[in-house]
Design a protein that fits this description.
globular; 14% strand; 13 helices; 4-stranded parallel beta sheet; disordered C terminus; alpha/beta
Protein backbone atom coordinates (compact mmCIF):
# COMPACT_ATOMS: atom_id res chain seq x y z
CA UNK A 1 0.00 0.00 0.00
CA UNK A 2 1.72 3.18 -1.23
CA UNK A 3 0.66 6.34 0.60
CA UNK A 4 1.18 9.84 -0.77
CA UNK A 5 1.42 12.46 1.97
CA UNK A 6 -0.52 15.55 0.93
CA UNK A 7 0.48 18.58 3.03
CA UNK A 8 -1.49 21.83 2.67
CA UNK A 9 0.57 24.89 1.79
CA UNK A 10 -0.17 26.74 5.05
CA UNK A 11 0.96 23.69 7.06
CA UNK A 12 4.13 23.47 4.99
CA UNK A 13 4.89 27.15 5.55
CA UNK A 14 3.74 27.77 9.13
CA UNK A 15 3.31 24.41 10.90
CA UNK A 16 5.89 21.98 9.46
CA UNK A 17 5.91 20.03 12.75
CA UNK A 18 2.34 18.90 11.94
CA UNK A 19 3.53 17.56 8.59
CA UNK A 20 6.44 15.74 10.24
CA UNK A 21 4.15 14.31 12.93
CA UNK A 22 1.75 13.02 10.27
CA UNK A 23 4.57 11.42 8.30
CA UNK A 24 6.05 9.75 11.39
CA UNK A 25 2.63 8.60 12.61
CA UNK A 26 1.85 6.89 9.30
CA UNK A 27 5.24 5.19 9.43
CA UNK A 28 4.47 3.91 12.93
CA UNK A 29 1.26 2.48 11.51
CA UNK A 30 3.40 0.46 9.06
CA UNK A 31 2.48 2.56 6.00
CA UNK A 32 4.81 2.98 3.04
CA UNK A 33 4.50 6.75 2.95
CA UNK A 34 6.16 9.18 0.54
CA UNK A 35 6.14 12.98 0.31
CA UNK A 36 6.06 14.26 -3.31
CA UNK A 37 8.43 17.21 -3.32
CA UNK A 38 6.75 19.17 -6.14
CA UNK A 39 3.29 19.44 -4.55
CA UNK A 40 1.85 22.92 -4.04
CA UNK A 41 -1.54 24.44 -3.19
CA UNK A 42 -4.58 22.31 -4.03
CA UNK A 43 -6.47 25.41 -5.21
CA UNK A 44 -8.96 25.70 -2.37
CA UNK A 45 -8.39 29.43 -1.60
CA UNK A 46 -9.07 30.38 -5.21
CA UNK A 47 -12.14 28.16 -5.45
CA UNK A 48 -13.56 29.53 -2.20
CA UNK A 49 -13.12 33.06 -3.53
CA UNK A 50 -15.04 32.36 -6.75
CA UNK A 51 -12.06 31.67 -9.00
CA UNK A 52 -12.26 27.92 -9.45
CA UNK A 53 -11.75 28.42 -13.20
CA UNK A 54 -8.18 29.48 -12.38
CA UNK A 55 -7.29 26.28 -10.50
CA UNK A 56 -6.57 24.05 -13.49
CA UNK A 57 -2.83 24.39 -12.92
CA UNK A 58 -3.27 23.27 -9.32
CA UNK A 59 -5.28 20.24 -10.48
CA UNK A 60 -2.69 19.32 -13.10
CA UNK A 61 0.14 19.54 -10.57
CA UNK A 62 -1.79 17.56 -7.94
CA UNK A 63 -2.49 14.74 -10.39
CA UNK A 64 1.14 14.68 -11.55
CA UNK A 65 2.35 14.35 -7.95
CA UNK A 66 -0.17 11.87 -6.57
CA UNK A 67 -1.43 9.69 -9.46
CA UNK A 68 0.92 6.80 -8.57
CA UNK A 69 -0.34 6.29 -5.00
CA UNK A 70 -2.92 3.85 -3.70
CA UNK A 71 -4.07 6.39 -1.12
CA UNK A 72 -3.51 10.11 -0.55
CA UNK A 73 -3.55 11.17 3.12
CA UNK A 74 -3.73 14.70 4.48
CA UNK A 75 -3.92 16.25 7.99
CA UNK A 76 -6.53 18.79 6.87
CA UNK A 77 -10.20 18.04 6.29
CA UNK A 78 -10.87 21.23 4.33
CA UNK A 79 -8.18 20.54 1.72
CA UNK A 80 -9.28 16.90 1.45
CA UNK A 81 -12.88 17.95 0.85
CA UNK A 82 -11.78 20.41 -1.82
CA UNK A 83 -9.90 17.70 -3.71
CA UNK A 84 -12.78 15.23 -3.31
CA UNK A 85 -15.26 17.70 -4.78
CA UNK A 86 -13.21 19.75 -7.23
CA UNK A 87 -10.31 17.75 -8.71
CA UNK A 88 -10.75 17.49 -12.49
CA UNK A 89 -8.65 16.84 -15.57
CA UNK A 90 -10.19 17.60 -18.95
CA UNK A 91 -7.62 15.32 -20.60
CA UNK A 92 -8.10 12.35 -18.25
CA UNK A 93 -11.24 12.76 -16.16
CA UNK A 94 -11.34 9.02 -15.39
CA UNK A 95 -8.02 9.32 -13.53
CA UNK A 96 -9.16 12.44 -11.68
CA UNK A 97 -12.33 10.63 -10.64
CA UNK A 98 -10.33 7.71 -9.22
CA UNK A 99 -8.03 10.07 -7.33
CA UNK A 100 -10.96 11.93 -5.77
CA UNK A 101 -11.93 8.62 -4.15
CA UNK A 102 -8.38 7.88 -2.95
CA UNK A 103 -7.85 11.03 -0.86
CA UNK A 104 -8.50 10.81 2.90
CA UNK A 105 -8.23 13.00 5.97
CA UNK A 106 -5.76 11.53 8.48
CA UNK A 107 -8.17 10.26 11.18
CA UNK A 108 -10.56 9.03 8.51
CA UNK A 109 -7.77 7.01 6.93
CA UNK A 110 -6.67 5.53 10.26
CA UNK A 111 -10.18 4.49 11.32
CA UNK A 112 -11.79 3.58 7.97
CA UNK A 113 -8.93 2.19 5.88
CA UNK A 114 -6.37 0.94 8.40
CA UNK A 115 -9.22 -0.10 10.74
CA UNK A 116 -7.31 1.05 13.83
CA UNK A 117 -9.75 1.13 16.74
CA UNK A 118 -7.43 2.16 19.55
CA UNK A 119 -4.03 3.74 20.06
CA UNK A 120 -2.64 3.21 23.55
CA UNK A 121 -0.37 5.86 24.95
CA UNK A 122 -0.12 8.59 27.56
CA UNK A 123 -1.10 12.27 27.24
CA UNK A 124 -1.95 13.48 30.78
CA UNK A 125 -3.68 16.73 29.89
CA UNK A 126 -7.15 18.24 29.73
CA UNK A 127 -8.06 18.58 26.07
CA UNK A 128 -10.91 20.16 24.12
CA UNK A 129 -11.69 18.77 20.65
CA UNK A 130 -12.60 21.32 17.97
CA UNK A 131 -14.66 19.75 15.19
CA UNK A 132 -13.95 21.70 12.02
CA UNK A 133 -16.91 22.34 9.72
CA UNK A 134 -15.45 20.83 6.53
CA UNK A 135 -14.47 17.63 8.32
CA UNK A 136 -17.73 17.26 10.18
CA UNK A 137 -20.27 18.38 7.60
CA UNK A 138 -18.39 17.56 4.43
CA UNK A 139 -16.38 14.44 5.23
CA UNK A 140 -18.75 13.18 7.96
CA UNK A 141 -15.91 12.67 10.46
CA UNK A 142 -18.33 13.23 13.33
CA UNK A 143 -22.06 13.48 13.93
CA UNK A 144 -23.84 16.82 13.77
CA UNK A 145 -25.61 17.68 17.01
CA UNK A 146 -28.73 19.03 15.29
CA UNK A 147 -29.51 15.54 14.00
CA UNK A 148 -31.47 13.05 16.07
CA UNK A 149 -28.90 10.34 15.44
CA UNK A 150 -26.29 8.37 17.41
CA UNK A 151 -23.13 10.31 18.24
CA UNK A 152 -19.84 9.35 16.64
CA UNK A 153 -16.49 11.07 16.15
CA UNK A 154 -13.57 9.44 14.38
CA UNK A 155 -11.00 11.85 15.91
CA UNK A 156 -12.43 11.35 19.42
CA UNK A 157 -12.48 7.60 18.88
CA UNK A 158 -8.69 7.70 18.53
CA UNK A 159 -8.16 10.11 21.41
CA UNK A 160 -10.58 8.66 23.95
CA UNK A 161 -8.61 5.49 24.71
CA UNK A 162 -5.33 7.28 25.41
CA UNK A 163 -4.22 6.93 29.02
CA UNK A 164 -4.21 10.10 31.06
CA UNK A 165 -6.11 12.24 28.59
CA UNK A 166 -9.13 14.14 29.91
CA UNK A 167 -11.16 14.76 26.75
CA UNK A 168 -13.83 17.21 27.85
CA UNK A 169 -17.40 17.36 26.55
CA UNK A 170 -17.88 20.90 25.29
CA UNK A 171 -21.17 22.75 25.59
CA UNK A 172 -21.35 23.31 21.81
CA UNK A 173 -19.52 20.41 20.21
CA UNK A 174 -19.76 21.51 16.59
CA UNK A 175 -19.83 25.30 16.68
CA UNK A 176 -17.84 26.99 13.90
CA UNK A 177 -14.67 28.82 14.98
CA UNK A 178 -15.19 31.55 12.37
CA UNK A 179 -12.07 30.90 10.27
CA UNK A 180 -13.74 29.98 7.00
CA UNK A 181 -10.68 30.55 4.81
CA UNK A 182 -11.11 33.90 3.05
CA UNK A 183 -14.12 34.61 5.31
CA UNK A 184 -11.72 35.64 8.09
CA UNK A 185 -10.33 38.30 5.73
CA UNK A 186 -13.57 39.61 4.19
CA UNK A 187 -15.54 39.46 7.47
CA UNK A 188 -12.79 39.98 10.02
CA UNK A 189 -14.91 41.29 12.93
CA UNK A 190 -17.48 38.47 12.70
CA UNK A 191 -14.73 35.90 12.31
CA UNK A 192 -12.91 37.11 15.43
CA UNK A 193 -16.10 37.18 17.53
CA UNK A 194 -16.95 33.62 16.46
CA UNK A 195 -13.43 32.55 17.40
CA UNK A 196 -13.69 34.22 20.80
CA UNK A 197 -17.00 32.44 21.46
CA UNK A 198 -15.44 29.11 20.50
CA UNK A 199 -12.48 29.71 22.81
CA UNK A 200 -14.76 30.68 25.73
CA UNK A 201 -16.38 27.23 25.59
CA UNK A 202 -12.93 25.68 26.02
CA UNK A 203 -12.00 28.18 28.74
CA UNK A 204 -15.20 27.40 30.64
CA UNK A 205 -14.09 23.75 30.71
CA UNK A 206 -10.57 24.76 31.81
CA UNK A 207 -8.73 22.88 29.06
CA UNK A 208 -4.96 22.93 28.67
CA UNK A 209 -5.03 22.17 24.95
CA UNK A 210 -7.37 22.65 22.02
CA UNK A 211 -6.87 19.99 19.37
CA UNK A 212 -8.44 19.26 16.00
CA UNK A 213 -7.83 17.89 12.54
CA UNK A 214 -7.64 21.18 10.64
CA UNK A 215 -4.63 23.36 11.37
CA UNK A 216 -6.33 26.27 9.59
CA UNK A 217 -9.03 26.48 12.28
CA UNK A 218 -6.44 25.92 15.00
CA UNK A 219 -4.28 28.69 13.52
CA UNK A 220 -7.24 31.08 13.73
CA UNK A 221 -7.91 30.12 17.35
CA UNK A 222 -4.22 30.32 18.20
CA UNK A 223 -4.04 33.91 17.01
CA UNK A 224 -6.92 34.90 19.27
CA UNK A 225 -5.46 32.97 22.22
CA UNK A 226 -2.13 34.76 21.86
CA UNK A 227 -3.79 38.17 21.71
CA UNK A 228 -5.75 37.32 24.84
CA UNK A 229 -2.53 36.08 26.48
CA UNK A 230 -4.31 32.83 27.26
CA UNK A 231 -2.35 29.87 28.68
CA UNK A 232 -4.34 27.45 26.49
CA UNK A 233 -2.19 25.80 23.82
CA UNK A 234 -3.03 24.57 20.33
CA UNK A 235 -1.98 21.11 19.15
CA UNK A 236 -2.93 19.16 16.03
CA UNK A 237 -4.30 15.66 16.63
CA UNK A 238 -1.40 14.19 14.65
CA UNK A 239 1.02 15.68 17.18
CA UNK A 240 -0.84 14.09 20.08
CA UNK A 241 -0.97 10.69 18.45
CA UNK A 242 2.63 10.84 17.27
CA UNK A 243 3.98 12.02 20.63
CA UNK A 244 3.19 8.64 22.16
CA UNK A 245 5.21 5.52 22.60
CA UNK A 246 2.67 3.57 20.66
CA UNK A 247 1.06 0.22 21.03
CA UNK A 248 -1.33 -0.18 18.14
CA UNK A 249 -4.42 -2.39 18.40
CA UNK A 250 -6.46 -3.15 15.32
Amino acid sequence: MKIGLFIPCYVDQFYPKVAIATYELLQKLDCDVRFPMKQTCCGQPMANSGYEHLTKGCDTNFIANFAEFDYIVCPSGSCVLHVKEHLHDENNEALASKMRKRVFELTEFITDILKIEMIEGNFPHKVGMHQSCHGQRGLKLSQMTELNAPFFSKPEQLLSKIKGINLVSLSRKDECCGFGGTFCVTEEAISVKMGQDRIKDHEDHQVEYITGGDMSCLMHLEGILKRQKSPIKIIHIAEILNSLTMKINS
